[in-house]
Amino acid sequence: MRSNLISTLASGNNFFQSFQNFLKGQSIDCPFGFYLINLPFHSIESIIFGMSIIDEIKHTPSFVIWPDSGTWRCFGQCNEGGDVFKFVMKRENIDFKEALDKLAARAGVQVPTFTKQTPEQKEVHDRLHILLEDAIIFYRSHLMANKELLNYLHQKRGLTDVSIETFGLGYAPSAWDSAFAHFTHRGYSEQDLAEAGLISPRDSGGFYDRFRNRLMIPIRDENGRMAGFGARIVDPNDVPKFLNSPETPIFSKGHLLYGLDRARKPIRTVDQAVIVEGYLDVIALHQAGYDNVVSPMGTALTEHQLRLLKRFTRRIVLALDEARLQADLRVAAIPDELDPDEIVARNKEEWARLIEKAKPIVTYVMETLATGQNIIDPKVKNQIAAQVLPLIEDLPNALERDTYRQQLARLLRVDESALTGTQAQASSVKRSRGTQTSQPKQAPEKPNAAVTVSSSKKVEAYIIAVLYKKPELLYRLDRLLQENGLIKLAVQDFEYTDHQMMFGLIREAVEQDNTEHHEFVVDAVPASLQSLLQELDLETEKTERMEAKTLEELLRGVIKLRRVAAGENLNQLRYLQEEAQQVGDLRAASYQDLVLKQTRLLHNLDQAYRKMSSKRLQ
Predict the structure, then answer these.
(1) Which of 13, 98, 339, 513 is the most buried (most CB within 10 A)?
(2) Which pLDDT tens digit goes with each residue over 358-376?
């Protein structure tokens, strides 16, 4: 049912209406860096243009919607695009499920929900959430009366009143029944308090406060709902140093990450999560502006916690005390793109061999970076060294550092002394141990992503350049694609708006008979794309070839573009399928169908590429 809803909201007939429902005809801040005015839009041959109100050229469209295909593009400095769901996700900095709920609500559509939670369980959970919210107020009032503890937080921990308020810090009195007496007087039952983890049973009968003479730190789930408390000692002689809520219907240490409710949006923004060890570390770092930081519940990271983080980013940094870590971290490379359970099903002994051959992280990174590279090229040597040396310098053991430097020198076929200059560069940007920076740093740009974008743009530019010069080749290219079991070339195959607009004109040119195709395109190109025409002319001057060879390269380029897009879609769908299966969401079956569809598309693309390659060898 949800897959039908998604298709309905994103379809061509409903796309622009969904967009208007969301924007409500108002001027908004562009989510990607500049200001847009969204209405009125101007429709020109099934394309709707929005005008930027700060562009120097006021008549140049900066935002385009294609209702027929259900896509949009902001082609100012951000150059982002996608469907209506991606727009809402980008602008609101939320995930797909939240975007779906927002759009459906604005369209007046009910989104069916599937949950294992019974109405009775929901009632219990809601009651516990409310009780724990009341507990925050109770503990906070006692903290405000404890000047000594407040001075400790201000002076020793460097926390501001704003941070103390924001994170809801409190103090549990040293009496054995303060919380018990307070909440039973307010009408809560002993069962409620026990289920919330606020009291513990006495061996002799009755109950006592679980938390006494402790700094109280509220712990919320990723959606901001109260789940429990972490409690730190005030008296150095007390034990244990940290005490968490017990396992309750809403608190499970292995399923929660402290600070994720506040960090989830910053994590998405910088595409990186940092894991530290302590609750107070998280608060201090958020206060300093590093708000993509979370902490586990004083236990080892669990698979569920990692899955939870992967909903927001795949880039995770462990910022742990080296002395405490004391771990020999290794990487076992899984072959053939299989999962561990598939390896075991194929051959139990193979799994044991893979684990036995697991390589230290530094070795694995340097070998992976070198794979497929021209090691003879000095620039390649420098790039690999620049990425590996910081990892080596982070090792606490001097002997290990020397060993890995020698290994890197052998891999790059250079004298070890040649790495000294590169090492100095790496060290200069590396923060010294035990020091702190005073200002938050912006997340570094991801070079891999930049390379991918650049490569895709060049492929798109080549295809458009050739078809601009010889639009009639589009018929032959479409026929080649269909002969290989693929659909015709379409606007959706292009990521960049100017290429999409040019392709629309080329397709229109070959479907009319009044004017020579190339002349039609030249005459129809708007003034805003005249500079692109000059670039396309230069592109075709550099790539003049025989027509058959040109068609082959066009086909290869289209296959590459589609394969990149399909691969990205497949990764996202697999993750959504895994997440749905974990929580018993009925959408898992719909995601599985979409995964199979994308997998078949990748298979067809690979088959077409192999077929094309075999013809070339004949």
Answers:
(1) 98
(2) 788 888 888 888 888 887 8
351: enclosing H helix or E strand: helix 348-356
Q: Decide: pTM greater than 0.90.
A: no
Cβ–Cβ < 8 Å for 471, 525 = no
d(CA 488, CA 39): 33
CB atoms within 10 A of CB 201: 11
Instruction: List, for residues 85-104, the tens digit of each pLDDT value.
Output: 777 777 666 767 777 777 77
Could you tell me the residue ranges of all domains in the chain?
2-106, 119-251, 260-327, 358-428, 451-617
Beta-carbon neighbour count of residue 61 at 10 Å?
23
Q: What is the DSSP letter of 366?
A: H
Q: How many residues does the chain have?
A: 618
Mode of pairing for the β-strands spanning 71-74 and 293-294 = unpaired
C-alpha 366/C-alpha 386 separation (Å) is: 11
CA distance 313 to 311: 6
Distances 268 to 29, 91, 262, 273 between C-alpha atoms, Å: 19, 12, 11, 8
- Could you tell me if 38 and 23 are in contact, meaning their C-beta atoms sit under 8 angstroms apart? yes
Q: What is the CATH number of domain 2-106?
A: 3.90.580
Distance (Å) of CA 335 to CA 346, 350, 385: 12, 10, 26
CATH of 260-327, one of 3.40.1360.10, 3.40.50.970, 3.40.50.720, 3.30.700.20: 3.40.1360.10
